Each structure stands twice: as structure tokens, then as C-alpha cells.
């Protein structure tokens, strides 16, 4: 899977470099540069062809739209990944806290109810069985 | 109020009292059985009614809950340490150091945003054909530099960052071509830097000469007249 990304990355780098050189030629154009300019223009088209060929290998790749927001703001998209992981961990911890609290509440409630209603709680435990260990 | 269907109470001798309303209880219990179409759920309810009202079965437990560390479960420790353990740099140019141009600016400013590409996708499906000779005639340009407003001086690739921090910070834009005034200033600066070194070297040489000369009194001290001769 990494190979198709490397392939696309290589083509994109070559394309960008070609465009950069094209810009240098154009910024201070000389008559002798015409041949080079024509060559660069055709390299640009072959570069687009190569990039278009890479598209077929990557049709199943999905990119989250939120990552695009980071790129449009000039921010590192790895920050999006970092924030996703941090949010996932925070939510995980939050839910774990709720589970732990509810488990403690349940065992406390059962123990207190057993003190007040011992017969009923015995029947309840007979139906549901003992509480599974947390 | 005398209930219907029953004899007058207490006034007729030997008549049995009206039957207790036990059938109502049994009717209530039998109701779930009578409604056979919704059988399984209501039968369960009916079965679970004893001894507790509305006691239901516990829900089926899920193996994966928030109680599990999901980062470990999905083997994301390496990714977590990579992104959250170290400081991730803020700018896009840190992610794409080889990409030339001013990429840290907002995409909406120069119309190069990805959002606009999604909202207004370009025409696709056409094939890419190389330019013919006739088409290339349209790309014949005038000689000379571009007008000021069209110049893109930031098209050079950014230089690689040096490890030493005390060096000057790499500018986003490349250095503009040296102007004559700049080169003279640098040359002058070099001369100024060299001059005190040259002076010192000359002083040292003269000291050595004076030490070895027969006229020298033997003291290793610089003579005030020697400094004036260096001008």
C-alpha cells in the first residue's frame, strides 16, 4: 500500500519541480530559452498523465474533510491526527469513568438493598445470578 | 348501591356470599396468554413479573466497551507516541519541506483552497494530449524580466534547515539577487573585518623583527612609533 503512495509522491514532486523550473525560465525569458520552455510544457502534460494514472490505484483511499480544513489554513495535517487521537483517548477515559461509577453504584445499591430487603434481594440474585466481577 | 347479579346482602338467610373477585387476578395473568400474537416478549414480561414487577432481562453485554483502552486494542500506541508524544510543528511547510512557494498562507486568499476544489470540481475525463508545434507558438514570450506585479520570487525551493540553531533562520522567501550596493557593503564589511586582523599580524611581525634586531634594548615591549607606521 505504501508503494502506490510513494509512486504518486514521486510523480507529484517531479511535477512540482518542473513547474518551478518553468517559473524560473518565464521570470526572465530569453529567446534561447524557448526550446526549454516548450520541453517543460510538454513535461507538464506528461506529468499530469502520470498523476492521472496513479488515480486508479488510489480510488479506495478516503481522506477526511477536516484534514482539508487544516491544509487550507496552512496548518500541518498531522495536527488533525494528533487531535483525533487525543479526543479519542479523552472520550475513552470519560466513558471508562462512567462505567466505573455505575459499577460501583450498582454494587453499593445491591449491598444496601440486601441489608434492607434481604429476602427480596435473595430472590433477585437467584434470578439474575451473582454480579459478574468488575 | 346493590351490586348487580347478586342477592340482597344480609337480608336473605342461607344464601352464600358473592364469590370473591379472584377471577380478575387470573384474568390479569391470563391476558398475556390470550394476546398470542405478541407472545414471546409479553410472555417474558409475564414470566418475569414474579416476584418483581417490570423486572426485565439484563441486556447482552458488549465485549468492547469504554472500559478497554481502545488505543491499545487497535494497536495505535506507536501512532499515539509519534503524534502526541512529540511536539508536532504547526506550519504546513514543516510537513512538506520540499514544496516550493508560500504554502503557509490561507488557501482562500489566492483561490488555492482544497475546499473550493471540492465545491467546484474541475472538468475531468478529458485526456491529456501533448502540445503540437502549432499550439506551442502560443507560448512565445517576450524577452526580459517579468513586470514587478507578476514576479513570483518565492518559487525557489526552501533550503534544508541546518542543525545548528545559532545560524540565521531560513527565510521563507529566497534571497533576492544581489544588488551592487549590497555587494559593495559586503566587501567593505569584509575589509573592515580583515583590517584589525591584518593590523595585529603586522604588529606581531614587527615585534618579532624588533626583538631580533641588534638595536633592540632587549625589552619585549611594543614601541609607540611602530603603530603609527602601520597606517
UniProtKB/TrEMBL annotation, chain A:
Chief location of this protein within or outside the cell: nucleus
Entry superkingdom: Eukaryota
Compartment list: Nucleus
Keywords assigned: Activator, Nucleus, Transcription, Transcription regulation
Keyword NADP: no
The keyword Nucleus appears for this protein: yes
Entry GO CC: mediator complex
Biological process per Gene Ontology, one example term: cardiac jelly development
Molecular functions (GO terms): transcription coregulator activity
Family stated for the protein in its record: Belongs to the Mediator complex subunit 10 family.
The protein's assembly and partners: Component of the Mediator complex.
Physiological role: Component of the Mediator complex, a coactivator involved in the regulated transcription of nearly all RNA polymerase II-dependent genes. Mediator functions as a bridge to convey information from gene-specific regulatory proteins to the basal RNA polymerase II transcription machinery. Mediator is recruited to promoters by direct interactions with regulatory proteins and serves as a scaffold for the assembly of a functional preinitiation complex with RNA polymerase II and the general transcription factors.
Name this polypeptide is given: Mediator of RNA polymerase II transcription subunit 10
Source lineage: Eukaryota, Metazoa, Chordata, Craniata, Vertebrata
Gene label: MED10
UniProtKB/TrEMBL annotation, chain B:
Annotated protein name in UniProt: Mediator of RNA polymerase II transcription subunit 19
Subcellular locations according to the entry: Nucleus
Biased composition regions of type Low complexity, renumbered to the chain: 221-231
Function, in words: Component of the Mediator complex, a coactivator involved in the regulated transcription of nearly all RNA polymerase II-dependent genes. Mediator functions as a bridge to convey information from gene-specific regulatory proteins to the basal RNA polymerase II transcription machinery. Mediator is recruited to promoters by direct interactions with regulatory proteins and serves as a scaffold for the assembly of a functional preinitiation complex with RNA polymerase II and the general transcription factors.
Keyword Repressor: no
Biased composition (Basic residues): 157-170, 199-211
Any one Gene Ontology molecular-function term assigned to this protein's record: transcription coregulator activity
Domain of life: Eukaryota
Alphabetic keyword roster: Activator, Nucleus, Transcription, Transcription regulation
InterPro entries: Mediator_Med19_met
Keyword Transcription regulation tagged: yes
Region feature Disordered, mapped onto this chain: 1-26, 157-231
Family per record: Belongs to the Mediator complex subunit 19 family.
One GO biological process term: positive regulation of transcription by RNA polymerase II
Description of how the protein assembles with itself and partners: Component of the Mediator complex.
Gene Ontology cellular-component terms listed: mediator complex
Amino acid at each position: 500500500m505504501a508503494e502506490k503512495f510513494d509512486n504518486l509522491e514521486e510523480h507529484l514532486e517531479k511535477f512540482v519541480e518542473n513547474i518551478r523550473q518553468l517559473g524560473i525560465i518565464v521570470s526572465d525569458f530569453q529567446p534561447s530559452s524557448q526550446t526549454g520552455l516548450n520541453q517543460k510544457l510538454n513535461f507538464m502534460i506528461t506529468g499530469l498523465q502520470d498523476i492521472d494514472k496513479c488515480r486508479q490505484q488510489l480510488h479506495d483511499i478516503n481522506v477526511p474533510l477536516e484534514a482539508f480544513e487544516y491544509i487550507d489554513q496552512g496548518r500541518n495535517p498531522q495536527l488533525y491526527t494528533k487531535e483525533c487521537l487525543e479526543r479519542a483517548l479523552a472520550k475513552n477515559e470519560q466513558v471508562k469513568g462512567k462505567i466505573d461509577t455505575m459499577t460501583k453504584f450498582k454494587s453499593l445499591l445491591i449491598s444496601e438493598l440486601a441489608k434492607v430487603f434481604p429476602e427480596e434481594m435473595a430472590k433477585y440474585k437467584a434470578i439474575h445470578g451473582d454480579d459478574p466481577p468488575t | 348501591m346493590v351490586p348487580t347479579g347478586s342477592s340482597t346482602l344480609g337480608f336473605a338467610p342461607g344464601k352464600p356470599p358473592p364469590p370473591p373477585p379472584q377471577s380478575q387476578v387470573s384474568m390479569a395473568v391470563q391476558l398475556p396468554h390470550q394476546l398470542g400474537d405478541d407472545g414471546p416478549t409479553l410472555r417474558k414480561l409475564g414470566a418475569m413479573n414474579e416476584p418483581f414487577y417490570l423486572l426485565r432481562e439484563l441486556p447482552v453485554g458488549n465485549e468492547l466497551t469504554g472500559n478497554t483502552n481502545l488505543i491499545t486494542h487497535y494497536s495505535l500506541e506507536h501512532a499515539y507516541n509519534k503524534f502526541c508524544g512529540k511536539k508536532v510543528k504547526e506550519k504546513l511547510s514543516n510537513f512538506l519541506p520540499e514544496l516550493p512557494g508560500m504554502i503557509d498562507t490561507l488557501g482562500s486568499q489566492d483561490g488555492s483552497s482544497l475546499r473550493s476544489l471540492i465545491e467546484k470540481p474541475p472538468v475531468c475525463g478529458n485526456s491529456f494530449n501533448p502540445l503540437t508545434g502549432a499550439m506551442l507558438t502560443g507560448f512565445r514570450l517576450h524577452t526580459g524580466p517579468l513586470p514587478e506585479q507578476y514576479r513570483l520570487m518565492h518559487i525557489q525551493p526552501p533550503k534544508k534547515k541546518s542543525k545548528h540553531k545559532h545560524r540565521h533562520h531560513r527565510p521563507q522567501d529566497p534571497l533576492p539577487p544581489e544588488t551592487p550596493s549590497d555587494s559593495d557593503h559586503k566587501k567593505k564589511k569584509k575589509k573592515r573585518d580583515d583590517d584589525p586582523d591584518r593590523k595585529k599580524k603586522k604588529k606581531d611581525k614587527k615585534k618579532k623583527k624588533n626583538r631580533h634586531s641588534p638595536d633592540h634594548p632587549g625589552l619585549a615591549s611594543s614601541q609607540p612609533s611602530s603603530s603609527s607606521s602601520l597606517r
